[in-house]
Amino acid sequence: MWAKGVPMFATWLYVSSSMVSQNAEQVIGSIQSTAQSRNPVLGLTGVLISSGRHFAQFLEGPDAGLTVMKASILRDDRHRDIITLPTQAIRERRYGHWALAYAGWATAIDRVLTDAVHDNDPRELLRYMDEFVAEI
After folding, report:
1. CATH topology classification for 2-135
2. What is the DSSP string of 49-81?
């Protein structure tokens, strides 16, 4: 979608239950590595966080690239119970410098993830992601 010559970027924010139990840091490192090579090709940028129990990821970019990535993520057996949180198209990327920023394990974030899903409200989760990216 275009508004006065300015491209709009589609967004997707989800929280899922992690199925990764053994070698979790290696598995997540592999996810990050794959995303860092694939996301630029698809025109995507974003952030991934993990609490150990859950994943949360915000992706932004063109509709076509996001559609390809969504399909891949929805088929991925490293997680289940994927819940999409409400987001809107944006004119400027939130995480434009990151093919995929990864926050590492943060068990304290589990409450934020649970609240975001329960309340269907992504604001606190997005604030956490913004703070994380600002610190790196």
Report:
1. Alpha-Beta Plaits (3.30.70)
2. EE-SSEEEEEEEE-HHHHHHHHHHHHH-TTEEE
